[in-house]
Every structure is written in C-alpha cells, then in structure tokens.
Write a structure and sequence with these properties.
The chain contains two helices and no strands. It is mainly α. The termini are far apart. Helix content is about 35%, strand content about 0%.
C-alpha cells in the first residue's frame, strides 16, 4: 500500500507530471548560478540547445568526447 507521497503524479493523459529527474540517455537537469547578462545572452543564442552544442564542440576539440587526454589544459 502506497503512502501517496512518493508516487509519481500523472496527468490526465497518463504521463508523469514535472521535469524528468534523469533522461533515458542518462542526462540530468543541473542548476547553475549565472549573472543576468549571461542568462540573456544564452537565451538569445538558443538556450540549453546552444549550451549543449557548444559543450559538445569543445569536447571534440579537446578530444574528451571519447575519453581522450583529460589533462590537455
């Protein structure tokens, strides 16, 4: 018997409500403090998709995407 507190709340369509804690691919939501000017810039560039794209580009440049030399800095 469940206590109702730890159950996932479902919408009328049967989907869980709220943001996913982890995605099937292993992704997570993270929280960073950023100054307002930086937030505005990120939003103007495309938001989280821009951040993801830039991080992946940087990882490829430094060879970290496939477990390359992590001490190359």
């Amino acid at each position: 018997m469940s206590d109702g507190i730890h159950e996932k709340t479902l919408s009328k369509t049967g989907k869980p409500v709220g943001r996913p804690r982890n995605t099937p691919e292993g992704g997570k939501n993270v929280l960073f403090y950023l100054p307002k000017t930086v937030i505005e810039y990120i939003k103007s560039q495309g938001g989280s998709s821009w951040i993801r794209r830039k991080a992946l580009e940087e990882m490829k440049i430094r060879g970290k995407e496939k477990g390359g030399n992590r001490n190359a800095d």
